[in-house]
User: Fold this.
Amino acid sequence: MVDQITIVRGPAVKHSYEVLIIGGGVVGCAIARELSRYRVRAALLEKEADVGMGASCRNSGVLHCGFKYAPGTLRAVLDVRGNAMMDDLCRDLKVKMKRIGKLTVALDEEDEPMLGHLKEQGDANGVPGLEVIDRDRMQRIQAGVEGYKALYSPSSAIVSPYNLTIALAENALANGVDFHLGQKVAAITRREPRWEVRTAAGDTFTADLLVNASGLFAADVCRMVGIGEYAIYPCRGEYYVLDRRLDGTLTALVYPAPKKNAPGWGTHLTPTVDGNILIGPTAEYLDDPEDFACTSDVMARLRRECQRLLPSIRQSDYIRNFAGTRAKQTPPEVGGNKDFVIEDRKDLKGFVNLVGIESPGLTSSPAIAEMVVGMVKNHLALEPDPAFNPVRPGSLDFFWELPPEEKAARIAEDPDYGEIICRCEKITKREVIDAIRNPLGARTMVSLKYRARASMGRCQGGFCIPRIVRLLRDDFGWDPEDFLKRGADSPMFVGNMRPDKGGQAHEA
Amino acid sequence: MRALSQRLPPGGLRGDDETPVIAKVEGSVCPKGEDWVRQEILNPMRTISSSVRVRGGDAPLASVRTDRPIPLARIMDVMEEIRKVTVDAPVEIGAVVLSRPAGCDTDIIVTRSVRRPS
Amino acid sequence: MKPKASPIEKIQREVVVIGGGPAGLAAAIAAREAGCREVLLIERDRILGGILNQCIHDGFGLHAFKEALSGPEYADRYIRRLPGAGVEVMDNTIVLSLSAERVLEVSARGALRHIEAGAVILAMGCRERTRGAISIPGHRPAGVYTAGSAQNFINLENIMVGRKVCILGSGDIGLIMARRMTLEGARVEAVFEILPYSSGLPRNIQQCLNDYDIPLFLNTTVTEIIGKGRLEAIRVAQVDGDRVPIPETERTVPCDTLLLSVGLIPENELTVQAGVAIDPVTGGALVDDTFMTGVPGIFACGNVLHVHDLADWVSVEAEEAGRFAAAYVQDRREEPRRRTPVRAGEGVRYVLPQTVSGERDFILSLRVTAPWRDRTVVIRDGGGRTIRKKKMMRLHPAEMIRIPVKKGAGADGSPLEVSVE
Assistant:
């Protein structure tokens, strides 16, 4: 049984770094990737068995255009900049991104002033292409949409948030940043002028600079270094995933015009880059930042909402639920949305602190990374690394998306492309093997799922998981105890039924 | 009153299990019924299926079953014997891998052939 | 470097059967024995037999062979006839797409092929309904499996999925797994069933639950799954007449494994792709009395057409489909077919075939909506005249009813109705 997954990568095992990033969400990985442009000894510590396991894999995957934020705030500036960076970034990292645009809809005349306000704000923020449009144009952008008028933002887009996180991490790794997965920070001690970080696994890391990008746990890490002014109020959002049968129903994002002081965007439908539709998220304040349960009342509410928005929906179209938690900085009584905290602490030299990076954290991530690296430069002379390669190897498309002639050619060269492992999503053995051999060494079923897309279809792994298990056991020598769903605490099996040559039989 | 069901044909019988000696069987639907009800109450017989480990085959297990019914009360004893069996590939359907397990009047036969990998 | 584009291998076959489980095997053999020159059987797994390979319990073949065989043995009876019958097999091959013109794109190790078929027989079977599809609230820990995939792990891959098991759904798959897990040393705490009755065979209730003192709780469902990493417990509650959980009855059952046996869904992705109309009640294609779907030359049989209880009847149905597909390719006459609708009336959940021609005898398959005793299944024509009656002592939704009907029924074109009286 695997107790702790610790994977160390890089030219040599080392624990002394110039920069240590705490937290492997999309922000932490974006910072790692930005740092990897320079000759610097840097590493990222992530407590889970893979990157992106917190909020980064549990959101709508929307790249916001930036009209929702007050001008001059970090959210406004970083979101608009981050959004603009996404074309090049996603192209280089081979991450699917689709600029489908968004309609923020005024359902009636009452909502119209809000549209005007948002457009003004967006213009001031430098959001490109904003237009208030009438019903006819709305219907041409999204067939069947109801509403009086809408604010159209062509720069709004969708992306796979976990693929982006993984891609940033892999590119950072390839360019020399070490990734330590399964390393939860337990204590931080000042050893002037450096830092000493002890992890729950008993390892010690030292660094000149710490970057706190720990998301839902940002306030906990702050307290470890004596910063007590921040608190995180977890706010959970639940989602349903809808079958790909509905792919094409939504050709743009459609959001209702937001109400003042709402904790988020409100429940809406979001198409994904893979052809599913998400409905959600809801908003519920909790104590536990990692309580990702879905609740029956909320699920029922989402189904009712879905019925209203998509009258043609069938019971069989609901294929899965999930939930994520926002790292809010204000309690429910206060509500609203505070601006990002991104600070180079004056009282603690060498501590770059990020707190409350909720929406639009995904969109802002590459711009946040630039800002953070700017702060790092205040402390370290950063020399650009001429060997930096921004391009991640691999293919943007899944194998099944290639034209038939190209598929035939690849199959002829590599027979593993001819064997389909995930029937629902048509994922080949070659793609599954590539995902198993991922550079970060992530080895849970969820890690495999995010990289290969296997088991994300309507049968939810009923067909492919036994085949993947057989593949990992026969071709990679895994034992039943090695199969983990999400991490060390989620073993999938208890053992062999009949004893294997070396292993133990399951005990009654 | 316990309602019993008979395997051949699919259907139901009604039997009285409150007395150790069966005085009367009512409502039986087929000629086999009465004997079967007595058996089912006094000494139920069952066939069981399980697996044995195969070494060197293209599958790790060969499915097996009892070729004759065994007493319900002896099932776990028979299972313990089956668990100890490992065979080498190839094995063919019908092969006996264990004879008279736990003294029961049955053989354990292979129900799916396992070949050596080609 | 991108490989050069390759031409795709294009081949033709008279009859192509998709799926090498009980339906596909029987259909392929029957098509050859009916005189087809070329019958190709495509199977995505490396072995033939489909779901039968993991059904190691007995009870198969009671009608077909008058023996009590396990699933693999039953499959073997057909598999060993394939070479003699001259059926061509492509295993490890998956059908990626099917067009209404009966062109298949298939993928195998080393080759992508396009196959033009004279007739196609759909025999893809079913998949299981998932946790996501029935929206059980709670966390999403490891330890929640569909009963069929747990059966696959234990019987084919030598893997035990857990030690302390609860099962939701008292259909045969859930019951069989209750026994299987118990025999291999797991503790099965209980089987929960949302309906007021079990949909499993009474024999399985006795031999899978009662024999092992595993309690069955009817009118009960799982209301929450608890456990962030690995399953720790489930919450269950009794349900009211509308199958809504009654909060005061909720209780916690500690366990590390939850098996879901909550329904089978015919696997009709390719069917829909080919433009075949689907019956919303069966989840399978609408067919006539030759098992042909609405798309000419595309036939369907077995679980992909409607979920069966007995493999023996799957084989009978598939043999019919095979013979009709053979007749179709040999005949090649495209005459207009009379399609008299057959309707499900009072007490009947569905009927199959959904249209008949009146030109041939056929077997009417149906399922009732609720369990009854001492009722009569009545088939009436459009004028209300009784065509056929069958008195039955026991009717149950879990047991498919098959009634032979003589030709002539439906010949006048007025719809037939089947009801329970």
